[in-house]
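the two lines:
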Amino acid sequence: MGLATDILSRYAPLIDDWDAFAAACGRPLPAVVWANPLRFEMLARLNRADGHPVETGDGGRERAAAAGRMLAARLAARGNGCEPLAWLPGAMKVSGLAKPGNTLEHYLGIYHVQEEISLLPPRVLAPAPGERILDLCAAPGGKTAQLAVAAGAAATIVANDVRIDRLRALRSNCERLGLLNVAMTAHDGTCFPLAAGLFDAILLDAPCSCEGNVRDTVGASYELPGEFLTGRSGLQATLFGRAWKLLAPGGRLVYATCTFAPEENEMVLDYSLKDGASIEPIAIPGLRAGPGVTEWRGTKLRRDCANVARFWPHLNDTGGFTVALVRKESH
Amino acid sequence: MSDPQPFLEIDGEPYAAWWHDRFAPPADPFSGMRFYRRGRAKIWVGTAAIEGLAGVRVDAVGIHLLRVGRRLWKPTSAAIIAFGGDATRNAIDLDRGDAASFLRGEPLLLGEDDERRAGVTAGFVAVRLEGVALGCGEWRRDTLLSCVPKARQGLEIDL
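prediction for all of em together
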């Protein structure tokens, strides 16, 4: 932990409670899963056969919550502890599940394993029925799946990734979870074809230096590099520029990274955004966020960068994520 | 970059008809869906609109349903899991022990008087546990062969 806090100490001026932050970074992350409402009937059938509670689950969000309760009943019967996430229906912290990827329920796509705070960007994008949505850096596909489930059968999600090994993981997850409204594409996101037309909403979960994953690495051999590396910012800005061209007037873009560095978050937005765009406030009941950065190491940034939401690990006992909701003006 | 094998939206009627003929589901599992073909032999099913993706390298759309073109059309395990749970024909229901073997990719011999093979005809079948489809099997000469993808056979799934 010594090395990680050394490099992360550059963010001390941004953090309300350094000791709580450092302590959180040294704890392993709780396992989190979300129940897949597309497998509702399957889950009900298994629960009926095994004598666990069965629900009817009418309506969208209620269906997700009901699927979550049925899944929790199954896991609890097996001796696992389940604690629902207050801010996301159907998702829960699970304890005692040694190999969450080796259960029948996982094999059947009844649930997906995903770090709690990485569940947030699709929730912020808030897909609406029938929308055309682009997930530009989609693999391994957990967020794609959330978008697909939330947007419904009348929507189309274009899930893109560039690397073959990551595309394989994306395809495997989409198939396992039974996603019917997803088209997977294989392009370098920085030159995703403009011929694809415009999208109502875009998720840009950009490749980053992953400082927010520091808790994943507790007890693991991986360590953060010894100093902050600036090399990602250019790629992030190029990806953002492409995504912006693909966004319809009036559309929404969520820019997210699992890293703390302003160089990879607010500064990318400040560099990329001109007139005709606004960064909107993000408020998720049940989740605490720190404010975005409007000045960093002597550089003043756009004032609406204050609306960027910074989810530091100690605020909600999660990994770290930085999320911005950007709206393009309609012309 | 153009794809040598683009996805084309097609009339799905022959493939839905094949599924109904083989598995006789009580309701149409493909109601409101689109069908797509890639290359000569791969049929996919889903709801995604791909009209606008002509210049885009598409790698998958919805769920890979069938491989056609050879003598027997072969459903994928993903398709059986999604659409095969309600099969009233050519489905084989296993207990937990046999289901675990099936998921490991092991063949299962079912003798002539085994009730589980009643009415099953040679070809691809929906394999189920507790009324839930686990994947595609092939019924051939008293034996149920597992068509669970090799990558997933090694998972040692805890039933």
